[in-house]
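Minutes, project check-in

Agenda point 3 was the complex the collaborators sent over. CS summarized: two entities, 460 residues total, and the question is how they sit relative to each other. Sequences were read into the notes so everyone works from the same version.
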Amino acid sequence: MKIAVFWGCRILTSQYAYEMSTRQVFPKFSVELVDLSETNCCGDPVKSVNDLAANYLAARVLALANKTGLENLLVPCNRCHFVISEAKGLLEKNVKFREKIIGLLNEEGLEYNSKIKIWHVIDFLHDFVGLVKVKKAVLKSLKDLKLATHVGCQIIRYSDLGRVDDAENPQKLDELVSVLGANVVDYAEKLDCCGANLMYSHPDSALSLTGTKLNILQVYGVDGLVVSCPDCGLMFDFKQKDAATTIGAKLNIPVVYYTQLLGLALGIEKEKLGLQLNQSPVDQFLTKIPL
Amino acid sequence: MSLTDLMSMAKPNLESREKILAKLTSKGLVNCFQCIKCTSGCTALKLLELKPHEIVKLVNLGFIDELASSDIIWTCVTCLKCFQRCPQKASPYHVIMALRNLAVEREAKVPEGYLKAVSRILEVGLAEPPAEVVTRKMEIFNRESLKLPNIASPKESFQTAFMKILEEH
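CS then shared the predicted structure for the full assembly.
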C-alpha cells in the first residue's frame, strides 16, 4: 500500500534518525511512503500565538495530503499528530470554522476532503500492519535487552479526539517492543512528560523534567529508552548531557526511536537507521544486539 | 507573591472574560467545580507552580487582564493531562491557550521563541532551520550528506494566506 507522509519541522530539521529509520522500515512491510509536494509547519508553536492561524496550517497539511490522492496520512511526530487531529475535528464539527478555513485554502488552489485517516508510526505498525507480521519479520531477536518505553503525551491525549492509544495505560509501544524479543519494564513514571514544550519559555525546567525521568530510569537498570516522538527524542537523546548538568546527576541512558530498534531487529544496517546520529551512549546498547 | 495574592488587588473585567469565552469552542470551563484533578496531575505544578484549577477559577471570576499579563500562562507544557482527566470538560489547556492568544493580541510579554517560530514559518514555511548534526564521533552531517530528500518549501501563495489569517483575531 501507499501512504502519504507528513514529517513536520522537528524531524526534517534535526531528528534525521527518525526520518531515516522510518524510511527504511516501512518498505519492509510493503508500505510505500509518499512525501507531500510541499511542506509547512503543522501549527504547533502558532497555537500559543493565534489559534486560527495554527489550525489553518494544520488544515493545509491535510489538503496537501488530499492532493496525493491517498486516504491515509502518516504523521510520525506526536505534536503534529495532535495539532492536525484537532484541526480535523474542528473541520468536521464546526461549520463556521470549516467555511473560513476552506475559503482560505481555496484561495491557494487547495481543497480539503475529510476522507483522510491520520496515523502515527505506533498505531500504524500495531493496528494496521499488526504484531504478528512485525514479529514474523524479526531476523535478530533483541532478547538480551531490558527496555523502557516513553510514548509521549500528545498521541495519547485527549481521548475525545480519538488518539493512538489509551490515555492512562498505553500498551501499544510496549507490545511493539516485546514482539522484537526485548524485555519491557513497566514503571510508575511512564507517563511523565519529557518537557520539550517548555524549551521556548523555561528551558531549565524543561531539562529538569527530562533529567529527572532519565535519572529514575537508571534506578530501574534499563539498557535503554525507546521513544516515538521527535520532541521526546530531542530531549532524552540530543539534550541528555544538558539535562544531566541541569539536575546535577550522571546520566547514561541509550535512547533510540522505535523505528531504529525495529530496523535493528529486521537486520537493517545501523548507519541506514541513523544510529550514528544519536547523542546518547547507544554504542553500549548496540553490543547487546546479535550480529 | 502568589497568583491569588495578585488578584486581591484586581478588579474583574467581564468584557475580557467574553473575549476568552469567544475564543473557546467549548464553554466547559464554566462547569468547573474545583475538584483539582487537573492541578494534582499537572506536569508544571512542581517546578513552576502552575495550578490549572486556579487559572480556570480566575477566568470564571473575570480576572483575565491579570492572567494575560502574567508569566504563569507560559509555564504549561501542553501535556494535556488536565483536559484528559477533567470530569467537567473545563479544559484548562484550552483556557491557557486562549489566554496566550489574548496576551499576544495585547502585545504583553510573550516568550520570544514563539514569535520567532511564527516569523520563520512566514518566511520559509517551517518553524526551524535545518540543522547540521554532529555525531558521537564528531562527524558533521546534514540532510544532503545523509542522502535525505530536499525539503519542499511551500508555494508563494502560502505567505499571503498565512499573513492574512495572522492579521485576524
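Noted in discussion: Strands of chain B lie at 133-134, 140-141.
Follow-up: revisit at the next meeting once the mutant set is ready.
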